[in-house]
Design brief:
The chain has 154 residues and is mostly beta strands. Helix content is 5%, strand content 35%. It contains one helix and ten strands. Strands 1-4-8-6 form a four-stranded antiparallel sheet. Strands 2-10-5-7 form a four-stranded antiparallel sheet, with no helix packed on it. Strands 3-9 form a two-stranded antiparallel ribbon.
């Protein structure tokens, strides 16, 4: 497992909340807390931008991905709307989470509740090369569902 240092800054409205942390030794994502000052009710079909109470500095060459928590999705239909959300290495503002309630009942976001998870990942940057033609492949320009027609035996 690779490790990288992430500088975390607790913001004033995040005081007293747990900082992002790994729930278990095998956890890949850091749990993110809700830094709301009141119970936030998400009605079915509604979304909200939820603060986490912290900012961070990632090293160049890394990103943070904001992902849903499986328990919230399975039990309540609550998920991260732009999953995975990407936090660029040069962003220094507060980490925010766009939650949406796809469930059938109101969902209440309480202060300190784990609302999402954040995965730190290395980034590869592509170098653009404008060409007249692309190399041929069996699939070609086949889109959605096209690979079912091109399955090969191994």
């Amino acid at each position: 497992m690779n490790r990288v240092t992430i500088a975390l800054q607790c913001l004033p409205h995040g005081e007293g909340l747990p900082m992002p942390n790994y729930a278990t030794a095998g956890s890949v994502g850091l749990d993110l807390p809700a830094a709301v000052n009141y119970d936030l009710t998400l009605k079915p079909g509604k979304r909200a931008l939820v603060p986490t109470g912290f900012a961070m500095a990632l090293p160049d060459g890394f990103e943070a991905q904001i992902r849903p928590r499986s328990g919230l999705a399975a039990k309540h239909g609550v998920t991260v709307l732009n999953a995975p959300g990407t936090i660029d290495w040069d962003y220094r503002g507060e980490i925010m989470v766009v939650l949406i309630n796809f469930g059938e009942e109101d969902f209440v976001v309480k202060r300190g509740a784990a609302i999402a998870q954040m995965v730190i990942a290395p980034v590869t940057r592509g170098i653009r090369d404008l060409v007249k033609d692309l190399p041929e492949t069996v699939r070609g320009s086949g889109g959605f569902g096209s690979t079912d027609r091109h399955r090969r035996l191994e």
